[in-house]
Amino acid sequence: MSQLPPCPQCQADYTYEDGLMLVCPACAHEWSSTEEAADAASDEQGVIRDSVGNVLADGDSVSVIKDLKVKGSSLVVKVGTKVKNIRLVDGDHDIDCKIDGIGAMKLKSEFVKKI
């Protein structure tokens, strides 16, 4: 009998195979039995994506997809504003950048699109 891994959600040892999937009867959690899927899921945790799902990296250029009000100012970053040479950071706002005419800003990746 082959040794199947315990359930990643509830740690129960009663998992069984159902085609290409592993199933836990205790909590009804299903996951892929291939190790490649587990490796891909662990790699995805540190990846920052733009509004359409493209992976962002340091030095990329992005375009703003929505008018963004600048907090504490009457300035607005307009739709289509191009931002060059971004830097990715941890936190609520994923991107550090400089915008011409405004200066240093922090942006959320959900409001930009990779060029």
UniProtKB/TrEMBL annotation:
Domain Protein YjdM C-terminal: 48-114
NCBIfam families: phnA
Pfam families on file: YjdM (PF03831), Zn_Ribbon_YjdM (PF08274)
Protein name per UniProt: Alkylphosphonate utilization protein
Naturally occurring in which organism (per UniProt): Halotalea alkalilenta
InterPro entries attached to this UniProt entry: YjdM, YjdM_C, YjdM_N
Domain Protein YjdM N-terminal as annotated: residue spans: 3-32
Similarity comment: family membership: Belongs to the YjdM family.
